[in-house]
Specification:
- By secondary structure, this protein is an alpha+beta fold.
- It folds into two domains: 131 residues, 2-Layer Sandwich (Ribosomal Protein S5, domain 2); 77 residues, Alpha-Beta Plaits (2-Layer Sandwich), CATH 3.30.70.
- Helix content is 30%, strand content 36%.
- The strands form two sheets. Strands 1, 7, 8, 9 and 10 form a five-stranded antiparallel beta sheet that branches. A five-stranded antiparallel beta sheet has the order 2-3-6-4-5, sandwiched between helices.
- It is elongated.
């Protein structure tokens, strides 16, 4: 089921899982196995859900929730046979409410599947909601994360005669140099910066190159770093 969620604070940065993980809890004799995966598309999420259905074929329920995109642009849930709203929705809420830093709720590109083995004691709607949401929240406290950041790219075109020395100066500065390529007439150093720092980057390049550089926009790319 498609869901609408509150957008994350920025469309240029979000946090996701470093690797898949699992965590198991027992609540009133029922086993709740929370399985978390980093995912980049709804298709990838569905593939993991299908794999878990095969692995846990004898489980009574395997509800799921996932959220995608910087800004939480897509979210879906499934109760997988549990009473409507008692499984997928609280699992999704646990994902989007997770604080990756004080005041920051930007976890995304994450799938949660909670496998339940019924233990013979009914939990009721409220109990199920707490159990499924709590299983995901508990798993997230044990997970490790990475930051996905969109970076703006700028190509710094340099006269061939001065390119070697200036490239070294750029690499030794606070600028983030991505790559260098050479042509018969110039050296081109690609620099990355976070969105909103275009003027600062251009000023820094101008200072380091003595005004010899010509700058062109080179688009953007997503990078990954440790949280």
């Amino acid at each position: 089921m498609s869901q609408s969620v509150e957008p994350a604070s920025s469309g240029d940065r979000f946090v996701t899982l470093r690797a898949p993980m699992r965590n198991e809890q027992e609540i009133k004799r029922s086993r709740f196995i929370a399985c978390l995966y980093p995912v980049s598309s709804s298709q990838q999420a569905r593939e993991h859900i299908a794999e878990l259905r095969k692995e846990f074929y004898d489980a009574r329920h395997r509800p799921s929730a996932f959220v995608l995109g910087a800004g939480h642009t897509e979210a879906r849930t499934s109760d997988d046979g549990e009473p409507a709203g008692t499984a997928g929705a609280p699992m999704l809420q646990a994902l989007v409410a997770h604080q990756t830093a004080p005041g920051r709720r930007d976890l995304s590109d994450v799938l949660a599947v909670v496998v339940r083995y019924f233990g013979g004691i009914k939990l009721g709607a409220g109990g199920l909601t707490r159990a499924y949401g709590g299983a995901v929240s508990e798993a997230l406290t044990r997970a490790s994360f990475v930051v996905r950041q969109r970076m703006q790219l700028v190509d710094v075109h340099l006269p061939l005669a001065e390119a070697g020395a200036i490239e070294a100066a750029l690499r030794n500065s606070s600028l983030h140099v991505v790559a260098t390529r050479w042509t018969s007439t110039e050296g081109i150093v690609q620099v990355a910066h976070v969105p909103g720092e275009d003027d600062l980057t251009r000023e820094a390049v101008a200072a380091l190159t003595g005004g010899l550089a010509r700058l062109t926009d080179a688009g953007s790319e997503w990078t990954t770093r440790a949280l």
